Amino acid sequence: MAASDQAELRVDLAALAANYKTMQKHAGAAQTSAVVKADGYGLGMAQIVPTLAAAGCKVFWVAQLNEGIALRALLPEAVIYVLNGVPRGTAKEFAAHDLRPCLITMAQVEEWQAYCQDNHQDNTPLPACLFVDSGFNRLGFGELGVAELAAKPQLFDGWELSLIASHLACADDPTHPMNAAQLERFRNALAALPKAPASLANSGGTMLGPDYHFDMVRTGTMLYGCSATAREEDALLPIASLRAPLLQTRQLSAGDSIGYGATFTASGEMTIGIASLGYGDGLSRYFGTHSPSKVRFTIGGHPVALLGRVSMDSLAVDLTDLAGLARPPAVGDMVEIFGTDNPIDRLARQGNTISYELLTSLGSRYNRIYS
């Protein structure tokens, strides 16, 4: 049994599966793959991945080689792409674990080709993805790099070009002109390169419509109940809820301050609660730099404001307006940081961050409950 002072992270795996099915419908004829990097967006890859596989997902994406190796242990038959490419000297590990690198530089293409030609000459060329930068300016081949690849078709000998992919920078804003510009650049790259299946759309791109779907979409944030547009009304089913127990309630008088730096001072009589969750659990100190009316959690569906700075292991909330309830909040009652009553996109907006960051910042001290 979890300790009574331990915060609680609940993950609804049935909702995750339902969200995958919903994204499949939005993707139409395109294959729906899943992004499970950063430990399944902080929710536990070991639990997230089998659920998605059972829902029909066959292609998964991680960022780093070590994530790919861990994922292969969970899914012996899945197709796994590694976004950060094949670091120098690691081609043998990719082959050993049947991982597909996203080749992002000419040196990586040359190294992958050399390894494949030297070690796999039995008519089973090893697959890899070619990642194209269509305007994000993060990873992959830009226009000059694509032109150089197109001029050297021999670089594609000896290995299988299983996918050509790129990434949208502004898919969270359907009206942003960058979306159409990247779509055009991606199409130009596809026309110049050897024919292969293509993937451009992330979660937000999937919602932009069929022009962006190509052969495969890569769904991430929307699977986990977050909105690709940062609007809580656009989110699918919430799959995660984070709650922390009240450790103590306190009475304040006018002039009493709270926490480090004494950044909040009571203007009159107040009731506050101290909850067992802080920046050591992944809730940034930045949340505590706002006015008390800005960041809100809930208790029993009732909003409560964050007061003062977030400490490593605790935070303070305003219980004053709940004192008149038939049963006022008491020690052991749970403060919902995000969940059904307090959507994660709403909390992220209040804290001037994004839901992705909230999820991937989750610490390891929670009592994790998967249903």
Automatic annotation (TrEMBL):
Where does the record place the Alanine racemase C-terminal domain?
239-371
Gene Ontology process terms (BP):
D-alanine biosynthetic process
| NCBIfam families, alphabetized | alr
The UniProt entry annotates the active site at 37 (proton acceptor), 260 (proton acceptor)
User: What residues bear N6-(pyridoxal phosphate)lysine in this entry?
Assistant: 37
Q: Which GO terms of the molecular function aspect are on file?
A: alanine racemase activity; pyridoxal phosphate binding
Gene designation:
alr
- What's the name of the protein? Alanine racemase
**Keyword entries, A-Z:** Isomerase, Pyridoxal phosphate
Q: Name one GO cellular component term.
A: cytosol
Question: What SUPFAM superfamilies does the entry give?
Answer: Alanine racemase C-terminal domain-like, PLP-binding barrel
Q: Which domain of life is it from?
A: Bacteria
Biochemical pathway: Amino-acid biosynthesis; D-alanine biosynthesis; D-alanine from L-alanine: step 1/1
For this protein, what reaction is catalysed? L-alanine = D-alanine
Documented EC number(s):
5.1.1.1
**Pfam families given in the database record:** Ala_racemase_C, Ala_racemase_N
Classification via CDD domains: PLPDE_III_AR
Q: Which cofactor names does the annotation list?
A: pyridoxal 5'-phosphate
Q: Which family does it belong to?
A: Belongs to the alanine racemase family.
